[in-house]
Amino acid sequence: MRAKITYFITAAVLVVYFVLVGSRGLMLIRHGTLLTVTFGVAVLILPVIGVWFLWQNTRFVRRANLLATELEAEGGLPVDELERDKYGRILRDSADEVFARRKAETEDAPGDWRSWFRLAVAYHDARDTPRARKAMQRAISLHDKKPVQV
């Protein structure tokens, strides 16, 4: 729940920022000189990119959460079997061990979105965020029966 609140607060702050930057871009364009119009258009591009990025991330998170909900209803969510240090951080050897099992599971069933979801969680636990995201994107594509990009 804390992560959701943080995400929504961050998204709200970004939207306010996009509005402020966009208004400054429009002010520059209204000024009417070649230089200010050029800068105004350049400034307006930033909020457009930011809104697109925020939208893509929100879609990704919503779809991943839908998969988690469905997997939970099936009783297939990965069990937290990771060892932790006294501060609650996951021990690297424990994460690597679980990752090896999840990778083997995914190699045995490469077309199963459930195994890719569990692999994404294992990547995340092993602190490999880019691969976790790619594995989750693959799980989403397989779940939606879309062509998987390699």
Summarize the structure.
With 150 residues, this protein is mostly helical.
How is this structure best described in words?
There is one protein chain. The chain has 150 residues and is mainly alpha-helical. Helices cover 77% and strands 0% of the residues. The chain is built from 5 helices and no strands.
Features:
single chain, 150 residues, mainly alpha, 5 helices, elongated
Please tally the helical runs, counting DSSP H or I stretches of 4 or more residues. 5
How large is the share of residues in beta strands?
under 5%
Rg over CA atoms, rounded to whole Å, is 21 Å
Q: Which consecutive residue ranges, at least 5 long each, have pLDDT under 50? A: none
- How far is the first residue's CA from the last residue's CA? 33 Å
Order of helices and strands: HHHHH
What number is the mean pLDDT? 91
Largest sheet composition: none
Task: Write down the overall geometry.
Answer: elongated
Q: Write down how many β-strands occur, each being a DSSP E stretch of 2 or more residues.
A: 0
SS class: mainly alpha
User: Helical proportion?
Assistant: over 70%
Oligomer: single chain
